[in-house]
Amino acid sequence: MEPIRSSRADDPRVAPLLQRYSESLAATIARIHLARNARDLDGLRILTHQLVGSGASYGFEVITIAARAVEHPLRDGGTLDALSARIDELLDVLQAAMLGARC
Q: How many domains does the chain have?
């Protein structure tokens, strides 16, 4: 996946915070892997819920969309196996956002 740049990268109020947000995504990716491996659906739902909000706040709408695609089915009783491809896509998007913040 190509690097994803924040739509708010040129906003002088947000730009300084983007680097910290980008750096926090590495820990978020690790927590998603841990929750997935532990089959912790509630933990995964909480993480994706947080990403829905933070993605939009920091101008990464694609994070919000990918996180929502995991969060809503989990909230509605979806299984980890059924959501595996969506979780992989979310992880790819998070990696791309980390790369985009460095550009």
A: 1
